[in-house]
Amino acid sequence: MDSLYISDLDGTLLGADGTLSAASTEILRSLLSKGMKFTVASARSVSSIQNVLAGLELNLPVIEFNGAMVSDFDTKEHHFINSVDSSVVEDVLSLVEDSGNSAFVSAFTGSEDRLYYSSVTGEGMQWYLNNRRFNSDRRLKQLGDIRECLDNRVICVNVTGRIEKVEGLEAELRKQFPDSLAIHCLQDHYSPGFYWLTAHSIKASKANAIQFLQYFTGTTDRELVVFGDNSNDIGMFKIADRAVAVSNATEELKVLADEIIGVSDADSVALYLKNDLMNNAED
Question: CA 281, CA 157: separation in Å to the nearest integer?
Fold first, then answer.
């Protein structure tokens, strides 16, 4: 059976430095040129995905913001959007302020993607702002009042900082919005000690986005093979025909895996894809 391959990025396809290695790039280029159906499902935005996969020509849309959007890799056109109700966003922003934090808000104006912020509190948020400026992120826009973002479709509210700064806020968000928000709190792959707390629509998941992508691209008849490393990959592991975890994955995810391969820093996903396509060709 032909397969549809979908991989997480950070901690899975990318190396420990947050880049796609030259070896993985070469393997993926070759496999894509031969017609491999492959894409990625990430917590990143499509702009960030473009940056790290600049050497590839993907033949399928990408899944961004943990499944809140499915977008064209080249044009950034959004085919699928799950935004958060504006009244919920307003309450979330109040809780963020009450906790002594500040937020970055990813939104869609109807024609452009935006990354809004107002004030910046804490070293984690300052690092993220510096990082976005360094990467010349055109989405970035400062507002006098972060609530001005409510005029747009809000995709994600993000707070980053050390665990003591975000764990109380995470608990309060889970308590107040169990039926409205999907909450993720994950340690930064590249800055140990810092955590990303993100709030999306409850409907936003990699699993839901994959199911949309399958119908949108006419790949429902293909075996679904997924690769991941963390808790935000659980949903897609549960719907996959074959779930593959890298060996640096969380124990929680490994329990759900059909196979466990090498670490993300050893081109393990790319090498697995190469071997799998070779085996399929021989069958």
Answer: 44
